[in-house]
Predict the structure of Gfo/Idh/MocA family oxidoreductase.
Amino acid sequence: MSKKIKLAILGGGGDSLIGILHRVASGMFDQFEVVGGVFNVDLEESQNFARKIGIGTNRIYKDLDGLIAAENALPEEERVQVVSILTPNFLHYPMAKQLLENDFHVICEKPLTTTYEEAKILEETYKNSNSIFAVTYTYTGYPMVRQMKEMIAEGVLGKIQKIDVQYYQGWINPIIHDEEKRANTWRLNPEKSGISCCVGDIGTHAFDMIEYVSGMEVKNILADLNYLYRDNRMDIDGTILLRFDEYVKGVIRTSQIATGEENNFTVSIYGEKAGLKWEQENPNYLYLLEEGEPMRVLKPGHAYNSKLSLDGTKLPPGHPEGIFDSMGNIYKGVARAIRKEDYHPGEFPTIHDGIRGMNFIEKAVESHRQGNIWVEIDE
């Protein structure tokens, strides 16, 4: 059996949900071994956290510079091969760029950067490297999302006519209505989060999901965003109209002030022959809608599913698979790419998807600020 790929993690310490998600996902298929990293800006805190999760402190570093210098000084077979970036948004770009320049593979949380210009610079750095680069649009790892993608590619829906994606949360309500809290959270600070909160955080998931499952690219968008308070500098709600071509259109409805909602991410795609609907809070059900026919429910693990879907299914039918499994499938795809094994291009989102996401975020804000006008997404 091949040796495990050595993985370091930046950020994700303490009680970070994203940290737990990545650590569990990385170990899911016995492909990766977390050997160190920089979990916290405070070295002592970082070392204490490493002890807590059972990692030796000899490869816990003060900062990224220290990690790169120490790892590159080790024999090739011992050094870290891939680094996961789980830090606040403003650190994604400088960290990813430095890692690529030093020939590390990179797994980066979204959004890829804080600006589209940074994303394009990062792309040039990537092109000059030999590295694998994945962006964790986590939901693309769900088996029934992958089944949706394959069914659309096979023409089950016929020509796509309408796309409707909703992503509703309510978590920011306790913050946004408190003047002191909204002024002091990094999520609403453009210097740390970028120019968008809601679109940058969850709207970009919706945008990536649409292009992932449909196989089409959005050409133009019109955005109407909501900031709720004059002193709030970042959107926390928005509706975005989409054009793929003259006769194929869609909408993204996204909110972090949808009171009572938890993580209501719903994807509906309608073609001339049929429609498909998937809900993140019930991820093991893919609904197939056809005129004059009863609604059919497809579930993971059955032989009727595609090879891509079945590859992302670990359990027999009837056993729920969730967000950890979805992220685990992305890590599995990255492992195959690093090992130069055959893999499906839909196994993990790439730097191209991250760049498209940054373009979408900036264009959405531009559309809103210019009076809710149609703007073009770069090819």
Observations:
- The two ends are 42 Å apart (CA to CA).
- The mean pLDDT is 96.
